[in-house]
Design goal:
With 143 residues, this protein is of the alpha+beta class. It has 4 helices and 5 strands, in the order E-E-H-E-E-H-E-H-H. A 5-stranded antiparallel beta sheet has the order 4-3-2-1-5. Helix 3 packs antiparallel against helix 4. The protein is elongated and about 85 Å long.
């Protein structure tokens, strides 16, 4: 079985963290994870490299390693790049579905209009009536 890739294994800048966790006045920005998720879940001593800001750091970031469980057990995840990318993919998927549905509705309207026009031709409606029906159908298809 192939090893699971650690997608958070490269160190990042404080302004571009993988995750942001908060607990009261404390903010933890995860800049690097040393283990892949499955390995981390099995290791109670798994570490993250984080930037921490609190009332005790006087507005600056303190950098260092901390146990992942300390943050997970005491803070709330407020940002995750992985979740954000997942949301973006979901929005793109939904927009694609909306486009497909709109195209299907347009085709259905077109098919209905063609059926109506063929009936108009069969019943032999006069030119004025046929034009009125045609104009109405064109307006309907434009919506």
């Amino acid at each position: 079985m192939a090893r699971e890739k650690n997608l958070c294994g490269k160190r990042r800048d404080v302004e571009n963290p993988y995750e942001i966790w908060t607990s009261g006045d404390f903010e933890y920005r995860v800049l690097k994870k040393y283990k892949a998720p499955r390995a981390e879940a099995k290791d109670q001593y798994a570490r993250w490299f984080v930037a921490t800001k609190s009332p005790y750091t006087h507005g600056s970031w303190e950098l260092g390693d901390t146990y992942a469980l300390d943050i997970k057990n005491n803070a709330t995840l407020t940002y995750s790049e992985e979740l954000e990318l997942s949301r973006i993919e979901t929005v793109i998927d939904v927009e694609a579905e909306i486009e497909v549905e709109a195209e299907e509705r347009k085709k259905a309207k077109q098919k209905s209009a063609e059926a109506i026009m063929s009936k108009v031709e069969v019943i032999g409606a006069d030119d004025e009536t046929a034009k009125a029906i045609y104009d109405t159908l064109e307006q309907m298809l434009g919506e």
